[in-house]
Amino acid sequence: MFRFKADLHTHTLLSPCGDLDMTPEYIIELALQKGVDIIGITDHNATRHCRLAEHYSSKRDIFVLCGAEVTTKEEAHCLAFFKTHELLDEFQAYLDEHLPNIPNSPDVFGDQVQIDEEDNIVYEEPKLLISGLDVSIEEINKKVKSLGGLFIPAHIDKPKNSVISQLGFIPFDLDYDAVELSKHGDKEKILAEHPYLKGKSFIRSSDAHFPNLVGTSTAIFEMETRSFDEIAMALHGEGGRSVKLE
């Protein structure tokens, strides 16, 4: 088995709260500088920069895990990842369908722009991406799983916008692959307060919205190689693969 450092939660400039310097290419370069082997691209309720990030990673020694940070009807944040571009496109259509028609105000929330390889703006999302979808966490979970995706409740230790902060617990019938802690999240404290999480995989990520935060919080995946399937196996402790907090 090999050890791979992973930061599975980063935002590009497409997210309204993402710094305009957070282009997919710059995120890839920053991650490499920090010794990150696997980077997750997870804009708020959007997958539109995943292909571009993969383009910049193709000739570099880094793997891009493609997905989004989804905000549920309960205002809980969850990470969702998918294996192929076709599945990403299908999930993007689902996000577009269920994102409320609340217009973004760039002066208040920030720009929401998609760029191409020449840094030209090719799309500007008119709806506010940080809004909660009009569907519940259970419904989103079922959609992700129907597409063969990975589902990870995000920063569960945070007092705002986590499943636990919004619901008080993680629903017992939720089909999730791991849980995420923020930089200062205390796994033992979480387990003491929520013992049903014993035996679940934990990851730690940066949730970077600014360049200086990329790769500052990571988890270590022990597996044969870098791929969607290997990451899924590691999250479930299958075939001798595993994931550990640094």
**Tally of distinct domains:** 1
Structural class determined from secondary elements: alpha/beta
| Rg calculated over all Cα atoms | 17 Å
Order of helices and strands: EHEHEEHHEEHEHEHEEHE
Strand order of the largest sheet: 7-4-3-2-1-10-11
Structure description:
- This protein is of the alpha/beta class and 246 residues long.
- It has one domain (2-245): TIM Barrel (Alpha-Beta Barrel).
- The chain has helices spanning 24-33, 50-57, 85-98, 106-109, 137-146, 163-167, 187-193, 228-235; strands spanning 2-10, 38-44, 63-71, 77-81, 113-115, 121-124, 150-153, 179-181, 202-204, 219-223, 242-245.
- It has a seven-stranded mixed sheet, with helices on both faces. Strands 5-6 form a two-stranded antiparallel sheet.
- Strand 8 (179-181), helix 7 (187-193) and strand 9 (202-204) form a beta-alpha-beta unit.
- The radius of gyration is 17 Å and the shape is globular.
- The mean pLDDT is 97.
Summarize the structure.
The chain is an alpha/beta fold and about 250 residues long. The protein contains eight helices and eleven strands.
Task: Describe the structure using short key phrases.
TIM Barrel, about 250 residues, single chain, two-stranded antiparallel sheet, seven-stranded mixed β-sheet, alpha/beta
Ordered list of secondary-structure elements with their pairings:
Blueprint: E1 2-10, H1 24-33, E2 38-44, H2 50-57, E3 63-71, E4 77-81, H3 85-98, H4 106-109, E5 113-115, E6 121-124, H5 137-146, E7 150-153, H6 163-167, E8 179-181, H7 187-193, E9 202-204, E10 219-223, H8 228-235, E11 242-245
Parallel strand pairs: 1-2, 2-3, 8-9
Antiparallel strand pairs: 1-10, 3-4, 4-7, 5-6, 10-11
Helix pairs in contact: 1-2
